[in-house]
Structures are given as C-alpha cells and as structure tokens.
C-alpha cells in the first residue's frame, strides 16, 4: 500500500513448536515504554529554569505510603495560580515526574486546606488537561490521590462536574481524607511534612464537624469550591516583572 516493508513486522509462532514467545512480547513492551518516555520528554526543555517554582514547595516528592507508592505532595495554598500560566504548570509537573519519578508506582497527597479558588486553584479543567497530556504509563503508575480537607462543597463539585472534566481513570483514584488522623491509615506519620497551617486547619474542623456536611456555616471559607476556570491573568500585570510568570 505504498508503505515500506520496515513499517511493521509480524512474528507467527505455531502452538506446537514449544517456542517461548515471551522474549518477543518483552521486546515489544520495551519499545512501548521507550515511546512513552519520549512522549513525556518532548515537553521538557533542558535549559528551562524551575528554581522559582521549586522554592515555593507546592510540589515535592516525599516518602512512601504503606503500599510502597512514592508520595508526590501538593500543598494547594503554596501555589500562586494567578501568576503561573497553565502551560508552565504543565511543563513543571512533567519535569518533576520525569526527573524524580521515572519508574514505579506513586500516589499524590493533595492538601486543600485553606485554599482560595481565586488565588490557589488552577481549575479542574487545567488539572484534567495536564493529566490527559501525561503518557499512558504515568497515568497507570498513579495509584491514589489523597484529597485532604476537601469540604462538602468540594466533594459536591467533584462528584458532579468531576465526571465531566476528569477522566474515569483519575476520578476513581480520588480518596477523600477529611481529617489527618485518617491519613495515617495509609501513610506512616513522618513520611511527609505537614505544614503547621494544615494542622491548625484540622483542629478547627475537628471543632466544627458539621461543616463537612454543609450543615454548619463556613464563615472562614475553609472549604472553598475548586474553580473550573482559568484563574491565570487576574494579577498578571502586577506580577509581570516576576519570574513566576512564564
């Protein structure tokens, strides 16, 4: 059909020859893994400097859970969504995963404590877009997303809009953790650093248990709804001279 004979190859093995086909299959699997790695690295620039984002420490690799999955810790409050473009955030996520998690299963511990949707949330659409851009191998290796302090409204939004904006593979990996004490069922204490404000927030919620169910009012907006839109650009001119903007 006009194509080269080198475009593909077919290996036919008769079932009664007693030939072990695993070496052929392993070779194909190795080629697929190399292609997945290429898919990830094509978004990376070896000369791009992410030191400013590293200093914010909103995305760090720390410890492992009880299933030996490496932990990628995300602190929502530390992320300046208004001054970091979606494209640069994607490149940074790819950089961290490819350079620090090149192989093996991993999980995400996301701390939603005191997140303000206008300032700290990139939006469900952006998070979904970044996840869908990941090579299939990296999606498969992501085992669980521990969502700490989600709040009633966050649960409601993800339960409704999440089915639209998040793929099934990611949607069913989310595990809500309303209190830190429940996190220790899956992760040993000391495996990851818990910021002081997260602990304080946990204490406040402990004294306001009905807030989790939307019954008790939330005057401090402790359980804000994650935005579904792009928040980048609100303070773009104010921060234009800073290194945070791509």
TrEMBL record:
Residues 52-203 form the CRAL-TRIO domain. InterPro entries: CRAL-TRIO_dom, CRAL-TRIO_dom_sf. It holds the Pfam family CRAL_TRIO_2. CDD domains: SEC14. PANTHER family: OS01G0948300 PROTEIN. This is CRAL-TRIO domain-containing protein. It comes from Glycine max.
